Fold:
Amino acid sequence: ESLVIHKEGYASWQNISSFATHRPAISTRRCIMPGTVYLVGAGPGASDLISLRALRILQHADVILCDNLLPRTFLEQLGISFHNKTIIWRGSGAEAMSQSELNQIICREALRGLSVVHLKGGDPLVLGRAGEEIAALSQFNIPWSIIPGISSCTAAPAGADMLLTDRSASRSFAIFSAVCAGGTLQENYPVLDSLV
Structure:
């Protein structure tokens, strides 16, 4: 059998021999609706700062892909059972999987009809490359959902008792990445009251 991806947004397994004779594979075809991919914010690393919604999604996920910024004990601290789950750690340094490889994994598992979680440090939409994953999922009409998390850009200052905004002194703040796509350093810094 081979996996066929249809433009209508579902995948099906079809008998290879049916293609050789150009006959419709009605009797040997099993349609598989894609599973949902959840881009889940894990917060700044403390397991008790994750949202209840994220916890429920993790409990029912078939596949969990974890970013390397999270502690390896993170799921255990949440009481997530590993039974009937595939847990994939992204790795770090030279062994870290690329964004392209990650996109392939989440699309492949979702097209098998599985519920997939990409567990990201912080918030998925704050410097989390969620846009690249959403673009890959959209190519195959795979449903996705964002579960927000506490971003380190607000958690770290809170842990240090630092105000990001103050009515009398600082009415705005900017979140800024020092590294651009491809690894080049950003040279143009925004000018605002607080820069994170």
The first helix runs from residue 16 to 20. The CA atoms of residues 125 and 148 lie 8 Å apart. Confidence is low (pLDDT under 50) at residues 1-29.
